[in-house]
């Protein structure tokens, strides 16, 4: 298998509200899609939003999961100020601030927000990653 994540699909309770959050609140570019699903381009991969019940049914698992899902989604930016800015943007769009931005044990600066369905997003500045131009995301460089 070639290492790659093609798409992350989130099972959401209110598709319209989640679409507003990601499209209008965070400014993700939405692709044309059928009304029961929404897709956003993420510079080499996609974010999909789909009804929670329908996604669970498709996977053959119960839809009543709760608590910590066991994963987070991370978005790396090029400065500590950009972390603060993006966390503020997310909260203004309806996210819940879970962990305010702060210096962290691994040498970076990060904070967390939860989207309208509680999915955790880490916003981080990692001095060991090169983020590059705004149209590129998190291209790693070797640790020194």
Question: How does this model look, in words?
Answer:
Pfam families: Glyoxalase (PF00903). Residues 4-126 form the VOC domain. It comes from Thioalkalivibrio denitrificans. This is Glyoxalase. The radius of gyration is 16 Å and the shape is globular. The strands form 3 sheets. Strands 1-4-3-2 form a 4-stranded mixed beta sheet. It has a 4-stranded mixed beta sheet with strand order 5-8-7-6, covered by helices on one side. The two termini are 29 Å apart. The chain is α+β, with helices and mostly antiparallel strands and 144 residues long. It has 3 helices and 10 strands.
Summary tags:
four-stranded mixed beta sheet; 2,3-Dihydroxybiphenyl 1,2-Dioxygenase, domain 1; alpha+beta; 2 domains; Glyas_Bleomycin-R_OHBP_Dase; 144 residues; disordered C terminus
Write the layout of secondary structure elements.
Blueprint: E1 7-12, H1 15-25, E2 30-31, E3 37-41, E4 46-51, H2 52-59, E5 73-77, H3 80-92, E6 96-103, E7 109-114, E8 120-125, E9 129-130, E10 139-140
Parallel strand pairs: 1-4, 5-8
Antiparallel strand pairs: 2-3, 3-4, 6-7, 7-8, 9-10
């Amino acid at each position: 298998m070639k290492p790659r994540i093609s798409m992350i699909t989130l099972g959401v309770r209110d598709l319209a509200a989640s679409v507003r959050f990601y499209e209008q609140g965070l400014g993700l570019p939405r692709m044309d899609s059928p009304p029961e699903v929404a897709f956003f381009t993420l510079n080499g991969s996609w974010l999909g939003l789909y009804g929670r019940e329908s996604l669970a049914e498709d996977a053959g698992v119960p839809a009543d999961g709760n608590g910590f899902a066991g994963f987070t989604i991370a978005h790396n930016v090029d400065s500590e100020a950009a972390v603060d800015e993006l966390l503020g943007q997310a909260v203004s769009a309806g996210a819940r601030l879970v962990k305010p931005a702060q210096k962290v044990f691994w040498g970076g600066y990060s904070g967390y927000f939860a989207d309208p369905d509680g999915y955790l997003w880490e916003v981080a500045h990692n001095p060991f990653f090169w983020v590059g131009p705004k149209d590129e995301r998190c291209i790693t460089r070797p640790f020194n």
